[in-house]
Amino acid sequence: MVDNKDAQPLTATDFTPLKSKAKKRGTRPSAALLFTTAFTVVALVILIFLFAARAIILRLEPATAVVDISGLSFHIGDNYLLLRGEHQLSAEAPGYFPLNKTIEVGDQATQEIDVELQPLPGNLLINASLSDIKVFIDDQLAGTVPGTLEGISRGAHKLEFKKYRYFPLQQEVQIEGLGKTQAIDISLQPAWGHIDFTSDPTAAELYIDDRLIGTTPISAEVLETGSRLTLKASGYKTLQQQVTVKAGSKAQHPLIEMIVADGRLSINSSPAGASITIDQQFSGVTPLTVDVVPFKKHQVELFLEGYLKASRSMQVEPEQRAQLSVDLRPNIGTVQLTVSPADAVVKVDGKLYSSSSKTGSQTLSLNAKPHSISAEKPGYQTKSMSVTPRPAHQQALTINLLTLQQAYWASRPPQINSSVGINLKLFRPDPQQPFMLGAPRRQPGRRANEAERSVALQRPFYLATHETTNAQYRQWKEQHSSTAIKGQTLDMNDQPVAKVSWEDAALFCNWLSRKEGLAPFYNVEQGRVVSVNWDASGYRLPTEAEWAWAAKIDLRSKSHIFPWSNDLFPPLKINDNYADKSASAFLTFTLPNYNDQYPVSAVVGSFKANSKGLYEMSGNVAEWVNDYFDIRPRRGEPQLDPRGPQQGNKHVIRGASWALASRTELRLSYRDSGNDGRIDLGFRIARYVDKPGSDL
Description:
This protein is mainly beta. The protein has six helices and 54 strands. The strands form 17 sheets. Strands 3-4-1-7 form a four-stranded mixed sheet, with no helix packed on it. Strands 10-9-12-13 form a four-stranded antiparallel sheet, with no helix packed on it. The longest helix is centred in the N-terminal third of the chain and has 22 residues, at about 30-50.
């Protein structure tokens, strides 16, 4: 701290301010300075613009077009300086459509841009002395003239002028466009001349191209290119023709002679449908309306089958409408009809002959034309026959009706052919004619398995006339061989197939059934036959009863022991193919003094057929049948359509073969058994006609 003990106290004194100098006025920038500054700024902006802008060269069409570009730009001659980016350009020029487009200025230092304006179309003023002239521009209809055609594109055009009754005119025109109107003058030349027309009769109406001109005699304008003339007069046929004349000339047409008009004739008949001739010329059938020559008598004739000819004479006036109605008279003939059964109902052409519904035999009076005569009765098949009665001669007609059963069997073919060439024949056994299956005890050669039993057949069936051949069987099993013995072949196509098991024979039947669309007879599981379907329509092996009936019972229901129809043994004549001396080289037992010329099996059908038309039922090869084998006799009432045992271990074999020669084996009652094939064992096929229980 400073010690201020000796300091003197402060005292106030007077203050007098100093006199100051006067303030100086402020200064403004000079004009020169401002100009310099502004110039500098503008120059700087221009320098920046010039540095950033790009040069654009516009190629103008037309060159006189006025162009305006949006944004900052400098125009120097045809060049523009523009900043980069999009700009809107507009251009205009007299005679052209205005143009507006967007241009893009890029990074290039210089760019060229086309600015082309489209010229306005032109107008064409066409002057002509005629009105309603059609004008075509470049083959397109543009309107009618005289007058002005507007909006024609700039350039060369083809014009064509057309007017009815004038020659067409063509010419070229160059349209300037640019909205200008040009003018041309045209003149069409007339395309007609004059023709003087006269007619007989006079005062006929004359039409030229369907336009009424007046009545004859008259002069009319006709086109050089041709006009259609129509001439009409009451009572005369309308006349039409083409006429022509050179344009600008005048001609005289020859006298036109008109033809008298036809009359009209309407012809009716009762009944209708009659043929008509007029003056011996066919004209049609009734009802008919036809034109006929007037002032002439016409011979009209009507013909209808079953009716008498009708003749009429007719005459008509020009343009007259005449009517002719004719009631035709029936031409009657008689038919003496005999009908069985006597109470059958008779119909003629599908209708009862009379209101009394007379039945049975009677005399029919009918028109002499074809008729359908039918007879019908419940339980019988209706039958129809055609007849044409002759008036001068009575005719006789017999109709015998078949029962439905008779008609059914009449419709069944007596023979059928399978798809593999096997022929089968229809058999209808009489159930009232039982026969003995087997052989009596005292018959020489009888075996224990041939116990006699009475059987009858009622179900119709088809049975093959021949044994199945190798060729037929190989259509199922292509590689099958029936082999040979001691150099003798059993393999020819027409020889019976051999070495076939019972099951293979059954499976062949099923294959053939399916091939023809039939229900298989045998039921098969895992390739083995397990049962049969007795309702099936397919092929099968014959039952033993069917085979025995076909082999041993003749047409007179007589049973035979041997195929040669007597008890003699051995056979005295060649009957079938058995073991004969030709086979003695390889067979132990043969028939003495018998030579059928075949050491082994023969071609099927080589020997005479039996009384039923079946071949080799007793020789050639033995044959499989459908039944299981047993030896138990069945006694009592005759068995109807027996089917054999329901089960068994073996199947029945029937008939002798080329390898058998003993009395026992050559009998028609001989039966054997087995399952496997043998070289002398084959088969023939069968099939049912209807299901069991059918009442037909």
